Amino acid sequence: MARVVVGLSGGVDSSVAAYLLKKEGHEVIGLFMINWHDTTGTLEGDCPWHDDRLFAELVAKKLDIALHVVDLSEEYRRRVVEYMFAEYEAGRTPNPDVLCNREIKFDVFMREAQKLGADYVATGHYCRKTVSTLPDGTERFHLLAGSDPNKDQSYFLCQLNQEQLRYALFPIGHLLKPEVRRIAQEQGLATAKRKDSQGICFVGKVDLPTFLQQKLAKKVGNIHEIKAEWPKFSLRPTRDSHAQEPTQEELEALAKGWHYTVRDGKKIGTHNGAHFYTIGQRKGLGIGGRKESLFILATDVQENVIYVGEGDSHPGLWRPALKIERDAMHWVNPDCTCAVGETLRCRVRIRYRQPLQTATLYSHEGGCYILFDEAQRGIAAGQFAALYEGEELIASGVICE
Length: 401
Hints:
The protein is built from 8 helices and 17 strands. By secondary structure, the chain is α/β, with parallel strands linked by helices. It is globular, with a radius of gyration of 23 Å.
């Protein structure tokens, strides 16, 4: 049996993970992270970290395991929150939860756990890990989707590497959420009926503009509407699924985001800062009286202009492809690496909970291009695209435009 340090967060998932590990006979130690102190922008009713700590203490007492507390707030601010501010300021759409897992839970936190003599570090993520052995004896660690299709969290771990996976355990990845709740209830764990956390990892559910105003100032700008009949929409090349393999130039054109100027649309309102908005967003514009909702098509943080279109079918919301710079492509499973000139059929998601989309990865000197079988809505620079082969998450990368 092994010594396993569990990231005890005060939620039901990590609580049941700790219980299952102890039931298996492991020496289990709880470790609670304090990662954020500021409540600026936190919505009323969202539990701050001290409530989480109280629940973690109750669970540790019930399971009769030691609980240690570590304050990682400085590392979290520097490696996750500052990244988030910088991305929004640059007009991109970050995913702080992906960075939190790569930089905090499976890096800084893992090192803290190893100080406690951990052989492994366990979390309450809904995903799975398997191990295979290569002909030369090297172990290869595979990150698989969770068994619960409604809770699969493998996307959030899409930036982990082999060394991080080596020491990771996911005890509830094979379970469905109702089963986890049932186990917690049967064992009398205080977290059994506690609601799942929402919002930004370790910060909580926030009013994003208010949260971002800690660093990013309000700046009144204009909202321009782009009509669905904008002439350039009809100029984008289309692809026949039976056509020959596209050239890099064709892929570059298909993956390019839409760019507008104020001359392309009519001013219909104002906003408080283009950096507070993301592509595909429909709430927070304050413009009503439309048959269909207005969606953000693009933001220009240099000119402080937001471009919007009416209706979910607006052509400005949809793109057939995306691009990832070669040095931004991360192979979770190195055996799947796609060399220059190679292609790979795979399934892809660009946001959590999005159903997997079939696509082809084209690897070129000038970048990696993902061409979807069907056009995708709301592709935005800064998002992570995660690639799957079957149940295995094999790679990911930051969308560059």
